[in-house]
Amino acid sequence: MSGALKKWLVMNMMSYTIFVYVGIFVNLFIWEKHRLIFDVAWFNLLMFFTWAFAFAAAAHLLSRFTIRVLLGISAASGGTAFALLSFVELDNRLVWIACIGIPVGIMYGFFSAAQNLSVSMSGSSAELGHYFTAAGSIQQVVTLAVPLLSAIAIHYFGYSSTFVLMLVFLVVMLLFSFAMPKISLRAEIREVRPSVLGWYRSVVSGNPSLRWFSASNLAAGVFLQFQQLFLLIFTFSVTENKFWIAGLNALYTLATLLGLLAYRKLRLQDHTLLGAGCLLLACGFLIVLVPVKPVLIVSNLLTAVGMFCFGAAWNTMQFKLIKPYSKSGQAGLLVWRETLICVTRIATLLIVLSVESLRGPIFVGLIAISLLCLCAVPYFEYRAKKAMPAPEEQSGQSAGNRAGREEPASL
């Protein structure tokens, strides 16, 4: 594994600490006031809406600056969010949630852009699988430790103590960003760049592999958002005791680590691992139609392991498809990928705003749509891989396509 990827693993350990805390305890902090699905959905909706624009803006800035600047903006935005959580509370709750969700979205968007663009340029196709597996392992360890330690701190010192602790982690993240590789797209970008629509017509629409790639991302956004949001809602529905939440989260993480051990022992191919993840996720989605507490816990166990299998395989397959393109071509495709995922995440959250209970027809409809999208992803990935040009065709086309592929969209 390259030195740049190893540095990203260290950065991931710090960032995951912050992201895991936000994913559980900021959502819980918002949920505890009125226990409304709407409040949590509103926070996540604004977060992902901002995330999409932040990712595109970060890719544009990379044509002038290095990823160090992107990571600095990410850390500063996260610091703003935790400062607001610590010192500001408005009478209008929706506006207050928006004030938290927007900087959190900027933090995620800039970090995700820096990571994805850097990773796609830093390692070989063979290294990507090792990187995503190692990153998944680090994430599981952090996911195991952070909730328990945060629950202890909140129990004895209140939420404010953990907000301050997250600010400390953000400062460390900011300092470590100066040690990251000076990766940018300055040498790759020409003065004249096509519009988003022009770039799409020249690069994506004429490439069958990228059309299936796009369909895969649209489908993935739906069930990724369903799984992420309702894993939290199911957990909060079981208990609001922070120690129990931490304990349940540890249980989900241990189940995922067992999945990791099985993956390493069996050495499954990407498509096999993706299929196994989809099967576990489908089972987890279906059993919540019996909304009793033990079943909700089992559902989260299945979807936690399923998401590890799905994420490791799907991300590896997607980055392998992007890898043959030039650096700026990779940037354009990653912006396109993130935009598609965020679009369907936002669409899903708009529907979730109308969900009032886990027994209603809207919730059942969401499960059906999520299952259809989940089952479609392996098919789309298979078609994308099948439609990829042969290696000799890619090398032969690289010079001729460089003008079209090297130009990221003007965002």
What does this structure look like?
The protein has 411 residues and is mainly alpha-helical. The chain has one domain: MFS general substrate transporter like domains (Growth Hormone, Chain: A), CATH 1.20.1250. It is 83% helix and 0% strand. It has helices spanning 3-34, 37-61, 67-87, 93-122, 125-157, 159-176, 196-204, 208-238, 242-266, 270-287, 293-322, 327-352, 361-387, 391-405. The radius of gyration is 21 Å and the shape is globular.
Secondary-structure map with pairings?
Layout: H1 3-34, H2 37-61, H3 67-87, H4 93-122, H5 125-157, H6 159-176, H7 196-204, H8 208-238, H9 242-266, H10 270-287, H11 293-322, H12 327-352, H13 361-387, H14 391-405
Helix pairs in contact: 1-2, 1-4, 1-5, 1-6, 2-4, 2-12, 3-4, 3-6, 4-12, 5-6, 5-9, 5-11, 8-11, 8-12, 8-13, 9-11, 10-11, 10-13
Looking at the chains present, what oligomeric state does this protein adopt?
Answer: single chain
Largest sheet: none
The residue ranges in which pLDDT falls below 50 over 5 or more consecutive positions are: 190-194, 391-411
Order of helices and strands: HHHHHHHHHHHHHH
Name of the CATH superfamily: MFS general substrate transporter like domains
Task: Give the radius of gyration.
Answer: 21 Å
What structural class results from the helix and strand content?
mainly alpha
Helix fraction, binned, reads over 70%
Under CATH, the topology can be stated as Growth Hormone, Chain: A
| Terminus-to-terminus distance | 32 Å
Number of helices: 14
Number of domains: 1
Strand content: under 5%
In one word, what is the shape? globular
By CATH, the architecture is named Up-down Bundle
Averaging pLDDT over every residue, what do you get? 81
CATH top-level class = Mainly Alpha
Total E-strand runs: 0
